[in-house]
Specification:
Layout lengths: L1 H38 L4 H23 L10 H9 L1 H7 L14 E3 L4 E3 L40 E4 L4 H11 L4 E5 L2 E5 L3 H13 L4 E2 L9 E6 L7 H10 L4 E8 L6 E9 L13 E2 L2 E2 L1 E4 L95 H5 L14 H19 L2 H20 L1 H12 L3 H13 L5
Antiparallel strand pairs: 1-2, 3-5, 3-6, 4-5, 7-9, 7-12, 8-9, 10-11
Helix pairs in contact: 1-2, 3-4, 10-11, 11-12
Length: 486
């Protein structure tokens, strides 16, 4: 039975080999046809497509032949190991059945890795890199000057309120902190320290001497102020602050805006946030507390800034380091902490010491006034290069005038009216505002009188028709005796 099974396997194997030989013959015929097509004078596109089809057939047959084992014995130990290691080298090295590979001197074969090392005469020598005797060229980066500077930024100035003994204070500051610059502006002395250490020590010295001053906050450290609109007017500010903190905003304060005169609350809420990258996202907020809202930048009231702490100008209470002053009683506390809650009938200004107004009144003599516009500006001088009269170049040099009768027109009526117009202009220029008001009042009284007595208007019309003085007088007497109806 075993012999019969082996015979059947060999028979099956031989049939497979015959089929492969048939395929090899087909490959030979296909290549012969390809060569014939190459020499034929046919359509180039059809010839190329036919050659490509035949080459595809040859590739398919070759793949089927390469998949066959090179040995007729089943599980041959030599060819099975070789095929498992390298299928490509098995067909070329083991053409004879079960024959061991022959080692030659020209090709040394490593049985473990199946790697053939070439002989020495077939290898080339690696040229050694010659070291250059010239010194290396040092390259310089042209953008080194654009690197960020490590110098400390100059601190912002300290604004000290000027007093009678300001010179003694400046002498002490310059003696202890050399290099400090001082400049007077708007009733304050701007003191610019040399570095941040001097800035800290100068502010400490001013606090010890109880000097009124204010500092300036850098722009990148100032808080962001926005206004939330379209919220209900009765919304609690603490609720708004809590909701914003849940959105990861660092909220400094929330204030409801009010009208200036009536102090009536408005549906607008001022939000002050600590400046950070996340704080800028508040401008993208369109819905808040389940309502659609609007976010706008806070616009302060136009005019000069007045401090709520010291009641002086040109700075805010957030940066003020001076003593507090009450707007009502003048004591050393803020106005919102004053015991006087009602309106004062005769207030006293703490800046100018006059009765009848408070320090926040814009009509106070100490309140900053806008600078008047410059009045000494001369109008621009224009030069015209066009000729103004018909004169030749020679007449212009000799300063002679050449009248042209065809273009000269006399207007006697206008010439007679010119002095009258000049006189009327001079008369109206001499009139003051009070005189104009008196004339308007008189005209208004005349209008009322004519409206109450329509016959007077007819009398004036009759007088207007008269040419001489006696005729006017006669018409007036006639209308007085017999007044016209209308």
């Amino acid at each position: 039975l075993k012999v019969l099974e082996d015979f059947k396997k060999k028979e099956k194997r031989l049939k497979m080999i015959l089929r492969n030989l048939t395929k090899l013959l087909m490959i030979i015929f296909e290549k012969a046809e390809i060569n014939c097509l190459a020499y034929q004078k046919a359509n180039a596109l059809s010839k190329e497509s036919e050659i490509a089809r035949k080459e595809g057939v040859i590739a398919n047959i070759s793949g089927e032949i390469n998949s066959i084992s090179p040995c007729l014995l089943e599980r041959c130990p030599i060819h099975c190991n070789t095929q498992a290691k390298n299928k490509r080298g098995a067909d070329s090295q083991n053409n004879s059945a079960c024959s061991s590979p022959i080692k030659t001197k020209s090709a040394k074969t490593n049985e473990n890795s199946n790697f053939i090392t070439p002989s020495k005469r077939l290898t080339t020598k690696h040229p050694q890199a010659q070291q250059s005797s010239q010194p290396q060229i040092l390259l310089k980066n042209a953008f080194n000057g654009l690197t960020e500077s490590s110098d400390e930024p100059k601190p912002l100035p300290i604004n000290i309120r000027i007093t009678e003994n300001y010179n003694l204070l400046l002498q002490e500051i310059n003696r202890k902190f050399p290099g400090t610059e001082n400049k007077h502006s708007n009733g304050y002395i701007k003191t610019t320290p040399k570095n941040s250490d001097d800035y800290r020590d100068i502010t400490k010295l001013l606090k010890e001497k109880k000097q009124d001053f204010y500092i300036m906050v850098p722009r990148d450290e100032r808080p962001i102020k926005v206004v939330i609109k379209d919220l209900p007017i009765f919304t609690d500010t603490e609720t708004i602050k809590t909701e914003l903190e849940e959105l990861r905003f660092v909220v400094n304060r929330v204030t409801q805006l009010k009208q200036i005169r009536t102090k009536k609350p408005l549906p607008m809420f001022l939000i002050e946030l600590t400046r950070s990258p996340n704080a800028e996202k508040i401008y993208n907020l369109t819905h808040f507390m389940n309502l659609k809202i609007r976010i706008e930048n806070f616009q302060k009231r136009p005019g000069y800034t007045q401090c709520w702490n010291c009641q002086h100008f040109h700075h805010s209470s957030a940066t003020c380091q001076g003593a507090s002053r009450c707007l009502k009683c003048g004591e050393n506390h803020r106005t919102n902490e004053c015991h006087i809650k009602e309106r004062m009938e005769t207030p006293k200004c703490i800046n100018c010491n006059q009765l009848g107004h408070v320090a926040s009144w814009m009509g106070c003599e100490k309140f900053p006034k806008p600078k008047p516009p410059a009045t000494n500006r001369q109008p621009p001088t224009t030069f015209s290069h066009r000729p103004t009269d018909n004169r030749t170049y020679a007449e212009t040099l000799t300063n002679r005038q050449h009248p042209n009768p065809s273009t000269t027109i006399d207007f006697p009526a206008l010439q007679q009216m010119a002095p009258l117009l000049q006189q009327s202009n001079s008369d109206t220029a001499d009139l003051s505002i009070s005189e104009l008001l008196n004339i308007l009042k008189a005209l208004n009284a005349l209008r009322v009188a004519l409206k109450q007595s329509p016959g007077m208007l007819a009398m004036l019309r009759n007088i207007q028709r008269c040419k001489t003085g006696p005729e006017m007088f006669e018409s007036l007497l006639k209308d007085t005796v017999n007044p016209p109806d209308k």
